[in-house]
Design brief:
Length: 49
Amino acid sequence: MRNAGNACDILVRDGTLQFWVGSQLVKTEVRATKGVVRKKNAEGQAPRR
């Protein structure tokens, strides 16, 4: 797996989720649910490595 072990950013939009590793879009999925998405890392904190 090319991206194993790398941090992944998830961009949440109204109908989709986009999974990014660095500047590369890895996958786009349709959201299965609506509503607020809980943040696991608050903005301004470094992602885990």
